[in-house]
Design goal:
With about 130 residues, the chain is α/β, with parallel strands linked by helices. It has one domain: Peroxisomal Thiolase, Chain A, domain 1, CATH 3.40.47. It contains five helices and three strands, in the order H-H-E-H-E-H-E-H. Strands 2-1-3 form a three-stranded parallel sheet, with helices on both faces. Helix 1 packs across helix 3.
């Protein structure tokens, strides 16, 4: 039997190009929407079961919104907070998405986690509407 190999099973990209303050969205909302869309992208017969299997959430630190624990907030929004063993909020940097993806694949290959989420997002356009949102 061949060893299990980590694979990317779902991806999504959410953009909010609104020019209205009333429809502005902060990064946590955009990232949450992207995770839900990525679950649907998997073509899984049971996206809810896949969601409930998430046990690792890595997020690239946002520049525009101050979150003390964005991975924890996302775990809560997804309803998997108690099951997520790893919650990691990276430093800023253009290399972070690749590093986080590589780390998630390594943990899966070593059997340290089963379903990992690697995410990031910004909402600079929303932030520009009103500096008080930042």
């Amino acid at each position: 039997m061949a060893p299990e190999v980590p694979i990317i099973v779902g991806v999504a990209d959410i953009k909010n190009r609104s020019n209205s303050l009333t429809s502005a969205k902060e990064p946590a909302i955009l990232i949450h929407e992207a995770i839900l869309a990525a679950l649907l992208d998997t073509s899984s017969s049971d996206p809810e079961k896949l969601k409930s299997s998430i046990d690792s959430i890595d997020v690239v630190r946002t520049w525009t919104w101050p979150y003390p624990d964005l991975p924890g907030l996302l775990a809560q929004k997804l309803g998997v907070g108690e099951r997520v063993k790893r919650r990691f909020y990276s430093e800023h940097g253009g290399d972070k998405p690749g590093r986080l993806l590589d780390g998630a694949a390594r943990r899966i290959a070593r059997g340290e986690c089963g379903v990992a989420v690697v995410a990031g997002g910004e909402a600079l356009a929303s932030c520009e509407f009103d500096v008080r949102l930042c």
